[in-house]
Every structure is written in C-alpha cells, then in structure tokens.
Amino acid sequence: MVVDIDEQAIRRSNPQELVSALANAKADALLLCISEPAILITADTVVLYENTVREKPRSEQEAREFLESYARNPVEVVSAIVVVNTGTKKRAEAAQYSRIRFKPSIVEAIDAHIANGNAMRGAGGFVFDDPILAPYIESFEGTIESTMGLDTEVLQELIHQVYV
C-alpha cells in the first residue's frame, strides 16, 4: 500500500526523531485503511550530511549538488522502522545509522546515476545498491540492509515484539 502523507509538514531537528515521526505518520495513516488483523510495517530514511538532513532531491540539479558533495565528506544514513499489530494496536520501532564514504571519483558516476533515475528515488540523491555507485564506495559502516532502509534482523525483532 502507498500512503499519502505530507512529509514536508512533519519536521524535527533530530534526524532520528524525524525518521521515526515520518514512519509513525505513515503507520497512522495506513491504520485508517486496514480493518483486518495484520502486521503493518512502515519505514523512512534520510541522509545526514555535515549535520544537514537530506531527503529525496527536489530536482536533478539538487541531486547533482548532493552527489558532488559526497566526494568531499562522508554521509550518514538514518532509518526508522515501525511495526504495528493492527489487531492489538501494539507498536514497536527502531532506528539505525550507517555511514558511507564515497571516493572523490564519484563525480565520474553522477551523470549515469541521474540518468537511470535512482538519484531522484533515494534520500540524499542516491540509492545504495545502484551498481553504478558500487565502485565509488570507499568505506562503509553499518549493515547494507539498514542503509537500504529495512534491516531484516531488526524487522524480525520488531515483529516478535508486537506479535507476542
């Protein structure tokens, strides 16, 4: 299901609080549409660059500026997962951080990353698993799944918390 919420109306200065608030808002909106018992899973991700939160770019130019800046400094990816048992309304959530340092040569991949559309799909202007970017990752801390927004180990634990 796709949820239609005004993400720009939900603001927090702390990135972890922001992704949590967004994932919870998505869950709240979807709960209004679900009448049968189910396990509802929502998530949100932002990129933190030099203490500035970056969401999906608003234009290709902004995506280009984001990507060019990653040649200079690492980025942190902040994700939240919310799980709700719609029958009991029991809710659990978790947030995760990961850190990516791109090689300065990432500038060579910007045009291709924008051309394939992935720059406009991901927070901070990139999709971590895009094969175009893979050769330009210098170092990585965290889990690949958390960087992509849905760590399955964390998800299993949250489901267990609301199911029991």
UniProtKB/TrEMBL annotation:
Q: Which UniProt keywords apply?
A: Hydrolase
| Gene Ontology terms for molecular function | nucleoside triphosphate diphosphatase activity
InterPro entries the UniProt entry points to? ITPase-like_fam, Maf-like
Supply the Gene3D superfamilies for this chain: 3.90.950.10
Q: The organism sits in which domain of life?
A: Bacteria
Q: Which Pfam families match?
A: Maf (PF02545)
UniProt signal peptide: none
Q: What is this protein called?
A: Nucleotide PPase
Q: Which organism does this sequence originate in?
A: Candidatus Sungbacteria bacterium RIFCSPHIGHO2_02_FULL_47_11
Q: What is the lineage of its organism?
A: Bacteria, Candidatus Sungiibacteriota
